[in-house]
Design brief:
Largest sheet: 6 strands, antiparallel
Helix content: 40-55%
Strand content: 15-25%
Number of strands: 13
Number of helices: 9
Radius of gyration: 52 Å
Shape: rod-shaped
Length: 463
């Protein structure tokens, strides 16, 4: 049971059925109440019409024994102001709901033979009728009735009240018929609604199940090149499938990048480690042949590579930079000091918020790259453009071909002219520089320098 209602389709079907059931009950109740009210109103109108017919006779002075009281075989009573029955229908056997239970007037009650002989004065019929419910037995048949009471003011007989009833059998029959139809039709309608909802949600959720199965298959196979099917419905499910495929593509790219990174890192580490081991083994066997200087260079190279890999790992982990104020002009002058052929042209007061250590690393990597490719001169510029701090590092070398201007920022990438490890390093400097720029909400790009060569521009939000 819990598994069944753990299904979206089952919950949607149950919810739709419950909503329709509540709506049907509310509508059915309103219909029944309205039908009953209308039928009661109609019965009340009929009863009042019958009472006024008798009241008109009384107002005209008609004696009690000459009244026409058999109005459509309905119960009729005439009561005087003392509450005594003075006239009633001939076939009336029992009555309740009018306040007077008598069905036959007693001899002398409310009757004055002398007055009858002399005639009676004109009377006035009341404008309003009072309605009540009760029952009566007429000619052996007992039914529920709607009674109307109409008062008649006469000069010689006082105030008389005429009670006339209209049967409620039509109202009861109509209500019972409507209730029977609802009791039979509502369950059938609910079954139809449930079945239609079940089928519609099944069809609507079929692509979702296809996406789930494909995702489960991808998880089992670990094949990130696979993609989930995209339905041609152009709805939320189709957008979900497209977003899922985009996520899979991004994940595949990330995993492949990570694999390449591990493979390249292993390759870069293998050479200095093998060289250092060889030198140490030779030194152990022949102390006089130990190349201490080469061993130190390999150790330093390993240390730098390990530091680069550690920094990249921190950047990949999303480590936020420190929120310190860094003066880029002062930083540029410090990094350029002692470097041959490097000049600085900087505006004072250009500051940014971030990690001084990481920004030092960016500028150092850019200067190392520029000096590696420059013929004779490298220029560092620092300026402010609106709310952006711009650091430019330009060299007078051969520049970077347009097709390689994005590739050089990938990890372990070295262009053909810089493949030598003695000249180019491991190919992580520019990748680290761009990642640091991105983590500082900035950008790092390369274009042609005005005087030839390459111009690297670092743009960061100014503090």
């Amino acid at each position: 049971m819990s598994r069944l209602f753990g299904s979206v389709r089952a919950r949607a079907t149950l919810a739709a059925t419950l909503v329709v059931a509540v709506a049907l009950v509310a509508a059915g109740t309103a219909v029944l109440l309205s039908l009953r009210s209308n039928l009661l109103g109609e019965a009340g109108t009929q009863a009042e019409r019958s009472a006024r017919e008798v009241a008109a006779q009384l107002a005209a002075g008609t004696p009690y024994d000459e009244l026409s009281l058999d109005v459509d075989d309905r119960p009729v009573q005439v009561v005087d102001e003392d509450g005594r029955l003075v006239a009633a229908g001939e076939d009336l056997e029992r009555i309740s709901g009018t306040g007077v239970d008598a069905v036959e007037p007693r001899p002398g009650d409310g009757r004055d033979d002398a007055d009858d002989e002399d005639g009676a004065g004109e009377g006035e019929i009341g404008a309003r009728a009072t309605l009540s419910d009760g029952s009566a037995t007429v000619d052996g048949e007992t039914e529920d009735y709607r009674f109307a009471a109409v008062a008649v003011e006469t000069d010689d007989r006082g105030t008389l009240t005429v009670y006339a009833g209209a049967p409620l059998s039509a109202e009861h029959g109509a209500v019972r018929t409507a209730l029977t139809v609802m009791l039979i039709g509502f369950p059938v309608l609910l079954v139809v609604v449930g079945a239609v909802t079940w089928l519609v949600t099944r069809r609507a959720l079929r692509p979702v199940e296809g996406i789930r199965r494909e995702m489960a298959a991808i998880t089992r196979s670990e094949d990130l090149a696979r993609r989930v099917p995209v339905p041609g419905t152009h709805d939320e499910v189709a957008r979900l499938a497209l977003t899922t495929n985009e996520t899979l593509a991004a994940l595949q790219t990330s995993v492949e990048r990570q694999r390449r990174f591990v493979a390249d890192a292993s390759h870069e580490l293998r050479s200095p480690i093998a060289s250092l081991r060889t030198q140490l083994e030779v030194g152990a066997a022949h102390p006089g042949l130990l190349d201490v200087e080469g061993a130190v260079e390999d150790t330093v190279r390993l240390q730098r590579l390990a530091a680069d890999l550690l920094l990249l790992a921190k950047l990949d982990a999303g480590e936020r930079p420190a929120d310190a104020r860094v003066d880029l002009a002062a930083l540029a002058r410090e990094e350029a000091a002692g470097r041959a052929g490097v000049t600085v042209r900087a505006e004072d007061g250009v500051t940014v918020a971030g990690s001084r250590g990481q920004l030092v690393r960016v500028l150092a990597n850019l200067l190392d790259n520029a000096q590696r490719h420059a013929r004779s001169a490298v220029e560092v510029s620092v300026r402010r453009e609106g709310g952006v701090a711009v650091v430019g590092v330009a060299d007078d070398g051969d520049g970077v071909p347009g097709a390689d201007r994005e590739r050089i920022f990938e990890r372990f990438v070295r262009l053909d002219a810089a493949r030598s490890r003695d000249d180019g390093g491991a190919g992580l400097g520019l990748a680290i520089a761009r990642d640091v720029a991105v983590h500082h909400e900035g950008t790092l790009t390369v274009r042609d320098a005005p005087a030839g060569g390459a111009l690297f521009e670092l743009r960061l939000p100014a503090a």
